[in-house]
User: Fold this.
Amino acid sequence: MRTYLRHPFWQAAGLLVLAYLVIAFVIPLLPGSAMVPSSVVLQYMATVLVGILIWVSDEEARWTQFKEPLHEVLVQPRLKMVRNGLLAAVTLVVGCLTYSQVRASVAAPPNLRSIHPAPPPQITFRGKTITLVGLDNPLRRSGDMAAHLAVGRRVYYQNCVPCHGDHLDGQGHFAAGLNPLPANFQDNGTIAQLTESFVFWRVAKGGPGLPREGTPWNSAMPAWEDFLTEDEIWSVVLFLYDQTGWKPRTWEVSAEAAK
Amino acid sequence: MADGMLLLQAAADTANAYRDFPWIGSRAAVWIAAEVHLMFAAFVLGVPIFAVVAEAIGIFGKDQRYDRLSKEFTRLLLIAYSATAIWGAVFVFLLSTLYSGLWAYLTRIFGPSMWVYVSIFFLESFTLYLYYYGWDRWKYGRAKIVHWCLGILLNIWGTIVMFIADSWLTYMMTPPRDITPQTSPASIKIWHAILNHTWMPINIHRLIGNVVFGGAIVGAYASYRFLASRSDEERAHYDWMGYVGNFIAMSALIVLPFAGYWLGREIYQYDQSLGITMMGGFMSWLWVIQAFLIAVLFLAGNYYLWVGMGRIPGAERYQPYTKWLLVVLVLGALVWGTPHTMIADSRELAAMGGSHHPLLGALGVMSAKNTAVNLMILATFLSFLLYRRANIRPTVPWAKAGTRIQAAMFVIAAGVVLFFGIRGYFVEAIVRIGYSVYQVGAVLACIVFVTLIDVLMARGAQSLGAIQWGKMPPRSQYALFILAVTFTWLMGLMGFARSGIRQHWHVYGVIQDMTPYAATPALGYAAIMISTCVLIFLSLVGFIFWLGGLAEKSTFVPSTVEAPHVGH
Assistant:
């Protein structure tokens, strides 16, 4: 056993298996984690494999030792059975992989949907042109913040909660029936990364107003400009940030603008 | 009635402004011509920088091998220049016939700079002829210095040519804000158009990129000749040449991301929509591929060094450490390649609660990426340092203290990178962006000061034996091939990202693309186009390498001088 453990070939094979177990089975078990998509497992395993191949071949003695078992299996007459078994196993694995790739499946294929596509420089809101670039939430500078938040809360619970959920985590009652899933505002990858004008644009124009890369045909989000006023949308945007504790992305002040 | 006439006029203008190209379409035709021209341009701008530096080392270091190396590459340049000019002509003809409206618009603004461009290209070509054909005539004394100055002049012409061409393409991407669709091109001042937001960042990014590319091509040429060598001496010569190419490519690569960061920042400052399309929108998938390819570059470059340690007496002292550097590089590559929005089917999306993985998603944001790449740069620099020190033992009395200070600098730099990387998760985006400056600053300061100490420490160092050039396993040479292919691919890929963010605009926000090809191509189609361009370029470069050997035998001459270690 010790001989095997010290041999680079078996060390490499062991590392590869260990890496697969960690990525596919240990990471999902960690607190707050979830299963790792197969595309990411493949990507990680390819990287690990390259790393292992570099390690076994960057020193001449280790490389020679690493090749020994492979060489022996391929040429030694006494290992004929192993050779044939290996040939059958490799063929079987390739066949199974090919079959798993081409077999018919009821699941929708993965797609390259952009979750945060680039917003247009300006939009038309009920006939009024709004320039999104450089735009901050106007309610932050006017009126009573508590009143704005109260409006935002009312708007959210009347309109958004069925999909985005009571905890703003995308787990509303309707969420299970939707694909793609409603946005999880508690995730640091959604509103925490965006300006308020971006969130305003998304709420106002909804799924139908997404650019092509955001697959507008593939979203159940309504265009809320048909149902809410401009101030109501700005209020609900305030409410989202207030409830989650995230701060909106701010605009970078360019040297020209600062003058 | 008047409106109808205007519409008819507009339709006629549009019809006259475009023509289609048979089979592949006008966009694909212009794409291939522009991309292959650009790759050759990078070759003919990068290799002269390499050649003139090599010649300088030959003159001032009194090592004839560098002089021969420089000449060998200048010979290849002659053929590459023709290829650049041919592809440039193809590009101009295609652009002017297929996109005549756009061409007319650009020439109206940039006409005078195009005349200057042609004149300087003319001067550049003749300087190159003088540089190459005068090599043996101006070989000694003051004449040799004059010859070297010709090499510098060649680089100056080349840089000006590149700066002029950069102004045209950057204008298309970031035209000055006061220029609107209604602005007559005749009223636009040429300097106003040239001095646009991304002109200087692109100039600098390309200048450094060309050095990297030149080094990589030199490395690939050397590996080709190494594998074809028939004698040990010839193998030793090309092994050394491959090392020099890799050294220059990797050294310049270390600073390239900083120039790229500046360019990205300028794009964001100009228009956040452009920035979001590039980094967060559908172009963001290109960055995941880019992360992969740059990880390949780091791994291949380090691999070449580690294998090379096998031919350096004394390197066995450092070989046990390389596996830890490999661990850093592989972990860095894993983090860098982790997408924020993951490709997943509906079952996986449901399990994750969306497209962002609840745990691994944290590795998909810039804080993690910046931390990973800076640590990878530090690891690569440490590899170089170990390689450099492999066959020497410092004799200065402060050698031990110096090494400790160097180690402390590495620890501090890595600590700063990690601190700001982790802290970035807890601050606003606007503050987080600023943190990358501290991370980069710490890494650059470490590189500069550690190198300085190392150079001082190597003075009068005891040699543990000469590098056994040529005693390199053939597999190491494929790492050099991988570097050249990956650099070429990356150029095509990220060039597409930069150009593609204009989406359906010829000149962003000013002139709209009205052809059937106005839609931004799907990633699969773009990947095929870029790979086609890379294949065309590499096939032609392979032909040039072959011609280089056909026209004249290699400049390799058995050396009696012991090969010095670059950087010593």
User: Anything to note?
Assistant: The longest helix of chain B spans residues 232-270.
